[in-house]
Amino acid sequence: MLGLNKKDASLLLVVVILTMFAPFFLNPFPTESAMAQFNAGYPDLMQRFVIFGIFAIGFNLLFGLTGYLSFGHAAFLGVGSYAVVWMYKLLDYNVLPGLLLAVVVSAIFALAIGYISLRRSGIYFSILTLAFAQMMFAISYSDLIGRFLGISLTNGETGLQVYTSDPQVLLNDWETVPHLLGLIEMRSTYTLDLAGWSFDFNAGYYFCAFVMILAFYLAIRIFRSPFGLMLRAIKSNQQRLNYTGLNTRPYMLAVFVISGVYAGLAGGLMASMDPLAGAERMQWTASGEVVLMTILGGAGTLIGPVLGAGFIKYFENIFSKINENVLHTWFNFMPDGLENFVVAIIYPFIGKGWHLTLGLMFMMVVIFLPGGLVEGGQRIAKLLKRGKKDDDGANTATATKPAE
Amino acid sequence: MGILEVKNVGKRFGGLQALGDVNLSIAENTVHAIIGPNGAGKSTLLNCLVGKLIPDTGSVMFDGQSVLGRKPFEINQMGISRVFQTPEIFGDLTVLENMMIPCFAKRDGSFEMNAIGSVMGQKDIIERAEQMLEEMNMADKRGMNSASMSRGDKRRLEIGMCLSQEPRLLLLDEPTAGMARADTNNTIDLLKQIKEERDITIAIIEHDMHVVFSLSERITVLAQGTPLVEDTPDNIKGHPKVREAYLGESADQ
Ligand SMILES: Nc1ncnc2c1ncn2[C@@H]1O[C@H](COP(=O)(O)OP(=O)(O)OP(=O)(O)O)[C@@H](O)[C@H]1O
Ligand SMILES: [Mg+2]
């Protein structure tokens, strides 16, 4: 189906179903229940899930397949956002021209940065990409080029946004927020209230989800293509490849550009949901985040990056929402002294301290599950299988060791 | 004129003259061995032929064209394939995938952007790779992870990968180094078979005299970066200079 083998097609189907019904899956708890704070089915967060999913899928094409660790991918994210906001400023609030520009501009930047960074490999490549991203961050943050040209290109610290004085040559009266071809506004949400539950169906989310499914499908095709095979060969043994008559440079450059475009598209979608673009989107912490997502989910696997992105964004949201008061209500049942003690211990890991939790989780995964969440899933599946086998052969347990 | 003509090649590493003034001509469709004590410059010479090193002086002509200044992948595309001292294969890929890569390089050249089609749809490549595995007697290992094979099998696969490109010149740097006796014999048999069945020129660096004398038609002895003598195996065996410089005690045995 769709040029995919059975296994890949069913994986794609699972992703389609999960994203389409996400508003249900992510809101399992009734609105009034105490557990409602663990719900994740509101538009803003769901949008982030799929947008960072795209970012991580693209990053994984580079890192997962070739082993080249870019530490500056957030640069393309920022470029994509700026491109979209600029199209709002010049044309109107339709997101498509902006996304098109985001793709083109991020491709150009990736071509230039990749061309230079790929002269080196290993840690030097990582440092070069980091250096480029930090330079672009600094340039955007101070709007260096804009000041040089005498215009406001990135609007510096304030961030780029749309002003009423902007040209917006195609603007109609009714346009006040980002929309798709005038058909639907990105922020429009239909809320379904159902016996205590409430589910949000947001247009922006579905638009991003659609793009993510396309991005995911394309990634599967790339993984299974001759091009993908060459990329895996580069990771495995670049020397052998060179002495087998293959020129690794254009392969690397091509995948670097593809991966940069994924990032640019993700950045563009961010600005499609919220018509703002700021330099902090390019900062090294953002570049580091996508590395974490990919490794946490399982680098080099198809679904891993999507899982990693969802995992990090979900826990970021949950942990940063919990504050001291919430903790006290949780541990209310304890004697006062103990309650205060427990709260004092947990407190550093919540709210703004959520990065501490992330760091710990990341450490655990890297040490105990080097293949990421995907490996965790595989191990559980294996255990279940084995458990089943043992049950079946309980009587002849010693005689039926599964031959592997 | 040989298929490979090395003229006055010199290479210096800092204060060390690794290659002095090497002249070497390898005739087409022969097996030519290069022997010499450790540090004689054999690997350095070979690296100069495949683009890994650029000699300071001299020229290297392959089939009338200079290889100097070309990148390893370009030299490979000219028709020179190389086997490494420790088998270099794609350890993360299956045996079949390993074999498909040189087939792609042969068919499509050094770069081809096919990011949408499926590898499994490349029927001609798969067919060719499978046929090559058959010839290497490795068809039963096609789905295996190549990293988990024995050293002898890795070597066999690597040689097969080189042969699938139908190179005109095959270079081997100590193909049996560090191998168990059985694997060594296996590799010798394979090389003999290749020599009989194919129109191919082979240059081999080897320490194992058994391998050298059972395979080669010409032998060049290299010592301290310069060729001492070049002759047939029989003449080399009895050559006084060679006994002195290289065979030494092993000839007295
Ligand atoms: N990249 C390098 N930099 C510095 N010196 C080198 C380099 N490569 C080789 N040499 C030196 O050049 C000399 C020739 O080395 P080479 O590896 O060519 O010898 P060899 O004949 O292949 O020896 P062996 O039989 O041990 O493989 C040695 O003294 C070696 O230390
Ligand atoms: Mg050597």
Question: Would you write up a description of this structure?
Answer:
Chain A has helices at 6-20, 22-25, 43-66, 74-90, 95-117, 122-142, 144-149, 203-224, 226-236, 238-242, 248-273, 284-297, 304-321, 324-330, 336-346, 354-368, 372-392; strands spanning 160-161, 179-180, 184-185, 189-194, 197-202, 276-277. Chain A is mainly α and 404 residues long. Chain A has a domain at 41-282. In chain A, the strands form three sheets. Chain A has a two-stranded antiparallel sheet with strand order 1-6. Chain A has a two-stranded antiparallel sheet with strand order 2-3. Chain A has a two-stranded antiparallel sheet with strand order 4-5. In chain A, β2 and β3 form a beta hairpin. The longest helix of chain A is centred in the middle third of the chain and has 26 residues, at 248-273. Chain A is globular. Mean pLDDT of chain A is 90; it is low at 392-404. Chain B is an alpha/beta fold. Chain B has helices spanning 42-50, 72-78, 95-108, 123-135, 151-164, 181-197, 209-215, 233-238, 240-252, and strands at 4-13, 16-26, 31-35, 57-62, 65-66, 80-83, 169-173, 201-205, 218-223, 226-231. In chain B, the strands form two sheets. In chain B, strands 6-7-8-3-9-10 form a six-stranded mixed β-sheet, sandwiched between helices. In chain B, α4 (123-135) packs across α5. The N and C termini of chain B lie far apart (38 Å). Residues 249-253 of chain B have low confidence and may be disordered. Chain A binds chain B through residues 3, 5, 221-222, 224-230, 232-233, 235-237, 239-248, 250-251, 254, 258, and chain B through 50, 71-73, 76-77, 81-82, 84, 88-93, 97, 100-102, 104-106, 109-120, 122, 125, 161, 165. The structure holds adenosine-5'-triphosphate (ATP) and magnesium ion.
